[in-house]
């Protein structure tokens, strides 16, 4: 398919589909796929984004044609939180980070995670008191997600770090970055606005906790976790920290994971 043949989703002059994205992004993408098929273009203000909805094409892009595609300039906003992690990097740096991390996603590596995940879920089920009182299932599933993330990604239990401080700091910091990513007009991040100062505070909490995770790993020497794979192939302290923040962000900010856990928990009652 020639680039000029790609259909474009109808939007407003100058703004494109950015208002639809801010009000209901899921509906925008579903309608775009339904009306235009496997590939289309979506205008977001001055940017023209190519939306690929065919999983085989996505796999080919990531595996064979990544050099022909660039990430949106808006992704630079994520560097405020994630630094130079896989979400924000491109080219040879991204390829190196992907190669370092993919060893953790072989069948044999993933099989080693089944037992600890089962233990965490079983322990959660046994310790969750259902005595007729209302429970915040979303919060419960967030705690469960964090326990699983800490064990499988970093080989540690929730008692090793301040689980509450991490979840709150990540939630607040990522909200700030995502709002900047979606904003049409934004101030430079170094200007000391209230939201920028709050973000810096939350980011410092995350940085301290990630450093603590690395120290705990060095002390206990966990093997069956993603952190161990990264440490085996990476020596730069800042790159390790950025990679850990990236994986933490992807796991704990993924509302789909928490929502599916909510549904599964309700059906298991």
TrEMBL record:
Enumerate the Gene3D superfamilies for this protein. Answer: Cytochrome P450
Q: Name one GO cellular component term.
A: membrane
Q: Which residues cross the membrane?
A: none
Note one Pfam family from the annotation. p450
Swiss-Prot/TrEMBL keywords: Heme, Iron, Membrane, Metal-binding, Oxidoreductase, Transmembrane, Transmembrane helix
Q: Which domain of life is it from?
A: Bacteria
Q: What is this protein called?
A: Cytochrome P450
């Amino acid at each position: 398919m020639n680039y000029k043949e790609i259909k474009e989703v109808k939007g407003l002059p100058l703004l494109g589909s950015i208002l639809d994205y801010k009000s209901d992004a899921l509906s925008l993408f579903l309608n775009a796929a339904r009306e235009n098929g496997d590939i289309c273009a979506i205008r977001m203000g001055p940017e023209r984004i190519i939306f690929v909805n065919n999983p085989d094409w996505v796999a080919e892009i990531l595996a064979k044609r990544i050099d022909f595609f660039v990430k949106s300039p808006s992704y630079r906003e994520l560097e405020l939180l994630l630094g130079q992690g896989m979400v924000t990097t491109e080219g040879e740096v991204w390829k190196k980070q992907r190669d370092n991390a993919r060893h953790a996603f072989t069948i044999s590596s993933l099989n080693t995670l089944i037992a600890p995940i089962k233990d965490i879920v079983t322990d959660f089920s046994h310790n969750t008191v259902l005595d007729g009182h209302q429970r915040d299932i979303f919060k419960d599933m967030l705690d469960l997600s964090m326990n699983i993330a800490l064990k499988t990604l970093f080989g540690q239990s929730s008692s090793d770090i301040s689980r509450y401080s991490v979840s709150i700091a990540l939630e607040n910091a990522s909200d700030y970055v995502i709002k900047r990513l979606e904003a049409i007009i934004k101030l430079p991040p170094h200007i000391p606005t209230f939201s920028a100062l709050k973000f810096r505070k939350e980011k410092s909490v995350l940085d301290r906790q990630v450093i603590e995770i690395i120290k705990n790993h060095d002390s206990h020497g966990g093997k069956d976790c993603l952190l161990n794979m990264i440490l085996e192939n990476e020596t730069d302290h800042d790159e390790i920290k950025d990679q850990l923040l990236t994986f933490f962000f992807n796991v704990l900010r993924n509302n789909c994971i928490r929502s599916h856990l909510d549904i599964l928990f309700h059906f298991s009652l």
